[in-house]
């Protein structure tokens, strides 16, 4: 029996609209075709009508989960053009926000993965754990999702109470090490769904240019925080976890280890947090000169690249180009699902932690 | 058992009039227990009933021809079959029964899953077809274990009457059979880890995808009654014989709820297996229980 | 067996969810609805310049200026608050209330520009006078 | 000499890298798209993205190919001629979606590859993101 199964654009396993057309032989997937663009909002074009203050708030809306990554990227790109260096305290706060965001994104992903293999208890547990991080983010920034922390030249809000974050990290680490990771790695039914599923070989990963945890699970040790440090990452001491089996379990393990690494980075950043200003320059007098700036940031899902061109004598950019991690990771799904069971495809497509609002922009 | 008492049992107790509220109650217990295991509040007590009423009030899209007729027919038949299964349960001792009612109970328990398969195919939806073929494969596999367990129990007590089984004492073979039935129940009730038929993340609602309104409400009711009948069967098999009918009835309910809780804990603690893993599991189970069952029967024969 | 311990802890720990009307309390730095104090406002219009979502509009003439706010467009980013040097704009520390009619929470405030004191800008005073 | 320094000569380009805006730039009339892709793939470079920019006042389009080489951001700048550019999809799989998007958003013909049906949106209008000419 040969089926052509449309998965999406509205499907319970996908949080966002996109379409995966599966050609199946019984319950085995032969090939897949991807359609995106259901979420296109024209943000790149809209950005050309916004000044350097507004564009930060606009870019925050590219993605709901990694909103901080996008504000950080646009601010860094504009800072490149205007040749502004934020004060050290601002750089540290940026690291802290980026790592908090990575934590909540990875824990959320673990929950979604649990849901996709029908493990609702794991889903609920992960979301309960994530709530601690969300509370901290809300206390720091005033909002759970769009933090509005970054501005050109620094950050908007200070971190007044590092002890609260440290307490949360302790709790989180305990939950991860004592509950989430052991359950995932000892539950027979969960393991049978992850091991050897959706394999992406190192060779294929290299040629597709995949980024982030997807690449690191396929044996490519790439991490921008290490290779091209931004903000204050140069002063942080951390490992880049790499797995070589390239299956869903490897991606799970990489993310689990990254959660622990993020906790360690947060501890270092909070203990070394330098005193001083949190931003430079007066926004009302700042002017962005003509020029071209790039910024690359390691988002929870992988590398984000911003290419910003600022025109002459104007307060709006003439071109903003955004490439998000899902955009480069998603074509890999086609190779991962070939030969997989139909029941595994939701998990496989989710294992790259796809984000379509980013991809469509 | 004459015609009047049979009719009363079917329609009043423990038949439809009792079975429908019991079904909602059991659905609520399952949902509430699941919520408690996941740090949630869970639904209010009347929620399954409200769900039913709400679904009853919804419009059903007109479906023409034989397919439409069949789609209306299957949920009604499913409710009838599971209500009949509940009606056969010997809740109160010496309330009647007939030789061989265990066989009827088994077939009535089996019918809803047949109707689900038929419903999935007659809905002509891709997801329905996928779900139905999964259900068909799964029911073939678990029924081997299920029937072997029941036949083993019946053979060990030399009777196919539920009443007699409820009155007799337990034996090792019987406990083995109860264990086998408990392993099959998640698959029968579409619970984790064998919830492949209605795996919403993969194939939406499976056979139920095209259903809505009162037809879906009837499916939900049938599902609840399956809960009552299946857990009731286990309760009948493990309950010690009691003379006082009130005590016996209370014990029956307590044991049924306990079975629901056990199944809920299993469902909360597991992820969903894929269809081929589920089938492999049941065939391994079948092999293990077959070896155990045959050897214990042989041992008993030798002892006798 | 880790999962069973988790289930037991969950069961003993009680629920962490709440029924619908209840909301967890917001932090004191929460970014909610924008509030405007016309007494303090100097009418510079920077808030509208900084607003990415066009939630704040500012219309100005020589005699009056109008500050208008549409929460339906607001993204609660707080850039207007950060940029207001007179601190005439603040944010409520609570999530916005539910509302059922479009534009129900909209605000608009028109302030008459005061006549400039003659000693500060003597050349501007006759101009305003003529307009009136 | 490091790999970075040898790349211009491998590409038969006389100009050398220019550091600007956080990236190393290489722009020359002698640059060829496919040659660049071959050399970069041989050095295990990773294609990040291609930025298409429409120049003001009908100045045509530019394409900037961004590569990652061990953490260094390299940019090769090209001016689009005759509204078409050679595809590098067969040399570098990562270019697949990027080239399709540029084709659909900016109407640039990417030669030497087949297009699957539209990636990003329904309809057959190409160049949906081009600026309209203002009168």
Please sum up the structure shown:
The complex is a heterotetramer of chains A (361), B (304), C (132) and D (135). Helices cover 23% and strands 17% of the residues of chain C. Chain C is α+β, with helices and mostly antiparallel strands and 132 residues long.
Largest interface: A-D, 40 and 34 residues
* Helical fraction of chain D: 10-25%
Strand content of chain D: 25-35%
How many structural domains of chain B?
1
The total of beta strands of chain D comes to 7
Alpha-carbon distance between the two ends of chain D: 53 Å
Global outline of chain B: globular
| Major β-sheet annotation of chain B | none
* Element pattern of chain D in H and E: HEEHEEEEHE
Uncertain segments of chain B are: none
Please bin the fraction of helical residues of chain B. Answer: over 70%
Cα-atom radius of gyration of chain B:
19 Å
The major sheet of chain D is characterized as:
5 strands, mixed
How far is the first residue's CA from the last residue's CA of chain B? 34 Å
The structure class of chain D reads alpha/beta
How would you classify the helix and strand content of chain B by structural class? mainly alpha
Q: Could you report the average pLDDT of chain B, rounded to the nearest whole number?
A: 83
User: In percent terms, what proportion of residues of chain B is strand?
Assistant: under 5%
| Structure annotation, total helices of chain D | 3
Strand order of the largest sheet of chain D: 1-2-5-4-3
Instruction: Provide the succession of SSEs of chain B.
Output: HHHHHHHHHHHH
Explain how this protein is built.
Chain A has about 350 residues and is α+β, with helices and mostly antiparallel strands. Chain A has a single domain, classed as Cytochrome-c3 Hydrogenase, chain B, CATH 1.10.645. Chain A has helices spanning about 45, 55-60, 65-80, 90-115, 120-140, 160-185, 190-195, 200-210, 210-215, 225, 250-270, 325-330, 330-335, 345-350, 355-360; strands at about 1-5, 20-25, 30-35, 150, 155, 290-300, 300-310, 315-325. In chain A, a hairpin with a 2-residue loop joins strand 4 and strand 5. Chain B has one domain (about 5-305). In chain C, the strands form 2 sheets. Chain C has a 3-stranded antiparallel beta sheet with strand order 2-3-5, with no helix packed on it. In chain C, strands 1-4 form a two-stranded antiparallel ribbon. Chain C is of the alpha+beta class and about 130 residues long. The termini of chain C are far apart. Chain D has about 140 residues and is an alpha/beta fold. Chain D has a domain at about 5-80. The longest helix of chain D is centred in the C-terminal third of the chain and has 12 residues, at about 95-105. Chain D is globular. Classes of the chains: A alpha+beta (about 350), B mainly alpha (about 300), C alpha+beta (about 130), D alpha/beta (about 140). The interface of A and D includes residues 40, 80 and 330 of A.
């Amino acid at each position: 029996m040969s089926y052509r199964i449309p998965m999406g654009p509205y499907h319970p396993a996908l949080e966002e609209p996109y379409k995966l057309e599966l050609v199946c032989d019984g319950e085995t997937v032969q090939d897949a075709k991807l359609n995106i663009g259901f979420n296109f909002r024209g943000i790149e074009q809209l950005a050309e009508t916004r000044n350097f203050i507004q564009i930060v708030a606009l870019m925050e809306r590219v993605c709901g989960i990694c909103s901080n990554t996008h504000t950080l990227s646009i601010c860094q790109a504009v800072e490149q053009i205007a040749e502004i260096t934020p004060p050290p305290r601002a750089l540290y706060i940026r690291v802290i926000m980026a790592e908090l965001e990575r934590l909540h994104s990875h824990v959320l992903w673990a929950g979604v993965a649990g849901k996709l293999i029908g493990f609702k208890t794991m889903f609920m547990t992960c979301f309960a754990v994530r709530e601690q991080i969300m509370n901290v983010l809300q206390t720091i920034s005033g909002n759970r999702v769009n933090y509005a922390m970054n501005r050109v030249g620094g950050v908007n809000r200070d971190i007044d109470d590092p002890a609260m974050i440290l307490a949360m990290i302790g709790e989180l680490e305990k939950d991860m090490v004592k509950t989430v990771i052991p359950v995932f790695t000892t539950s027979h039914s969960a393991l049978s769904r992850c091991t050897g599923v959706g394999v992406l070989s190192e060779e294929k990963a290299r040629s597709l240019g995949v980024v982030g945890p997807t690449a690191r699970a396929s044996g490519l040790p790439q991490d921008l925080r290490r290779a091209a440090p931004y903000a204050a990452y140069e002063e942080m001491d951390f490992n880049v976890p790499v797995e070589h089996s390239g299956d869903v379990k490897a991606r799970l393990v990489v993310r689990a280890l990254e959660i622990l690494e993020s906790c360690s980075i947060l501890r270092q950043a909070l203990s070394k947090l330098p005193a001083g200003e949190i931003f430079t320059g007066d926004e009302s007098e700042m002017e962005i000169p003509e020029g071209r700036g790039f910024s690359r940031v390691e988002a929870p899902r992988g590398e984000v690249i911003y290419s910003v061109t600022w025109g002459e004598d104007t307060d709006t950019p003439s071109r903003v180009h955004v490439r998000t991690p899902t955009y480069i990771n998603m074509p890999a799904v086609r190779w991962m699902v070939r030969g997989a069971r139909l029941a595994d495809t939701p998990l496989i497509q989710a294992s790259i932690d796809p984000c379509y609002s980013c991809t469509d922009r | 058992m004459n015609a009047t008492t049979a009719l009363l049992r079917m329609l009043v107790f423990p038949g439809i009039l009792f079975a429908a509220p019991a079904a909602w109650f059991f659905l609520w217990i399952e949902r509430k227990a699941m919520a408690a295991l996941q740090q949630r509040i869970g639904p209010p007590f009347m929620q399954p009933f409200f769900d039913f009423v709400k679904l009853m009030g919804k419009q059903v899209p007109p479906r023409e021809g034989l397919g439409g007729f069949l789609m209306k027919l299957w949920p009604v038949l499913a409710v009838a079959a599971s209500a009949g299964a509940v009606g056969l349960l010997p809740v109160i001792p010496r309330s009647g029964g007939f030789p061989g009612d265990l066989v009827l109970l088994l077939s009535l328990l089996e019918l809803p899953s047949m109707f689900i398969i038929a419903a999935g195919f007659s809905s002509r939806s891709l997801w329905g077809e996928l779900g139905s073929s999964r259900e068909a494969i799964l029911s073939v596999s678990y029924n081997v274990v299920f029937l072997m367990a029941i036949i083993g129990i019946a053979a060990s007590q030399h009777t196919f009457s539920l009443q007699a089984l409820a009155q007799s004492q337990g034996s090792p073979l019987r406990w083995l059979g109860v264990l086998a039935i408990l392993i099959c129940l998640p698959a029968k009730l579409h619970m984790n880890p064998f919830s492949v038929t209605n795996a919403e993340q993969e194939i939406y609602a499976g056979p139920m995808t095209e259903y809505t309104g009162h037809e879906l409400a009837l499916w939900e009711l049938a599902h609840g009654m399956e809960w009552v009948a299946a857990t009731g069967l286990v309760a009948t098999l493990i309950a010690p014989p009691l003379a006082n009918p009130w005590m016996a009835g209370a014990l029956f309910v307590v044991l049924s709820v306990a079975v629901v809780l056990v199944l809920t804990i299993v469902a909360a603690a597991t992820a969903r297996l894929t269809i081929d893993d589920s089938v492999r599991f049941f065939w391994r189970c079948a092999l293990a229980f077959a070896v155990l069952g045959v050897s214990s029967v042989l041992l008993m024969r030798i002892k006798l | 067996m880790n999962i069973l311990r988790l289930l037991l802890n969950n069961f003993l720990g009680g629920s962490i969810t709440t029924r619908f009307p209840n909301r967890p309390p917001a932090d004191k730095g929460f970014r909610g609805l924008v509030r405007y104090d016309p007494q303090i406002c100097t009418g510079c219009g920077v808030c509208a310049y900084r607003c990415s979502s066009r939630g704040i509009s500012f219309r100005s003439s020589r005699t009056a200026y109008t500050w208008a706010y549409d929460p339906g467009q607001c993204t609660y980013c707080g850039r207007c608050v950060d940029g207001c040097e007179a601190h005439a704009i603040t944010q409520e520390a609570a999530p916005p209330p539910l509302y059922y009619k479009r534009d129900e929470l909209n605000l608009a405030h028109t302030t008459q520009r005061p006549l400039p004191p003659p000693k500060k800008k003597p050349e501007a005073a006759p101009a305003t006078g003529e307009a009136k | 000499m490091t790999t970075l320094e040898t790349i211009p000569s491998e590409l038969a380009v006389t100009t050398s890298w220019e550091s600007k805006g956080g990236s190393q730039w290489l722009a020359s009339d002698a640059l060829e798209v496919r040659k660049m892709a071959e050399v970069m793939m041989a050095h295990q470079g990773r294609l990040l993205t291609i930025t298409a920019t429409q120049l003001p006042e009908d100045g045509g389009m530019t394409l900037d190919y961004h590569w990652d080489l061990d953490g260094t951001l390299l940019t090769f700048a090209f001016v689009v001629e005759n509204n078409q550019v050679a595809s590098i999809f067969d040399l570098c799989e990562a270019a697949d979606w990027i080239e399709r998007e540029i084709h659909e958003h900016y109407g640039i013909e990417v030669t030497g590859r087949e297009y699957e049906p539209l990636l990003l949106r329904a309809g057959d209008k190409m160049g949906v993101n081009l600026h309209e000419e203002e009168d």
